[in-house]
Design a protein that fits this description.
Keywords: Isomerase
Organism: Paenibacillus woosongensis
Pfam families: SIS
Distance between the termini: 35 Å
Structural class: alpha/beta
Largest sheet: 5 strands, parallel
Helix content: 40-55%
Protein name: 3-hexulose-6-phosphate isomerase
GO molecular function, one term: isomerase activity
Length: 197
């Protein structure tokens, strides 16, 4: 194996970890607490996202299911209809994803709560949301020179990687907070893990 590539890869890993550490300190704790409270007060939880952000939201849905909550991924064949006491959570860096805006509008018309995890509080989704978690990062088309709302966020990573990573980590932090509130351990959660694999 080429030793040069190993050194280069490790240097990049260190840069990513440094970015994540710095960006995590910019996330408002009260916004994460608001997300956790909204999840606990919701009748049912629906999650949505597109592309890689959608994959992070699917991972969040899986962990919410492991907590014993009733959760659905929008677009799956087994997803139920959204109702008044439910919560729709959307992950979108831009807050303008064309397939997600109508979902938020429909949820509002059904009197469900809408929460958005985004880079862009002033986006269409941000304005439609009842509450929001603003994540640091760079828009996917400006990753190496981005200026978002507030201080400039520069990343060595391509496209929306920093946002997507923070989306997953912020959601995992909320899961840990919910575990604390419900006095659940990972061992207890394992009872809800898929067993037909």
């Amino acid at each position: 194996m080429n030793m040069v590539s190993n050194v280069s890869s490790h240097r990049h890993l260190a840069a990513i970890m440094s970015e994540l550490d710095q960006a995590a300190n910019e996330i408002a704790a009260e916004q994460l607490d608001q997300l956790a409270a909204a999840i606990l007060s919701a009748g049912r939880i629906f999650v949505a996202g597109a592309g890689r952000s959608g994959l992070m939201m699917r991972a969040f849905a899986m962990r919410l299911m492991h907590l014993g909550l009733e959760v659905y991924v929008v677009g799956e064949t087994v997803t139920r209809s959204l109702g008044k006491d439910d919560l729709l959570l959307i992950g979108s860096g831009s807050g303008e994803t064309r397939s997600l805006v109508p979902m938020a509008e429909k949820a509002r018309s059904l009197e469900a709560a809408v929460g958005v995890l985004t880079l862009s509080p002033d986006s269409t989704l941000g304005r439609l949301a009842d509450f929001m978690v603003k994540l640091p990062g760079a828009p996917k088309d400006q990753a190496d020179k981005a200026e978002t709302n507030g201080p400039a966020t520069v990343t060595v990573q391509p496209m929306g990687s920093l946002f997507e990573q923070l989306l997953l980590l912020a959601c995992d932090a909320v899961i840990l907070a919910l575990m604390d509130k419900q006095e659940l351990s990972g061992h207890k959660m394992y009872g809800n893990h898929a067993n037909l694999e």
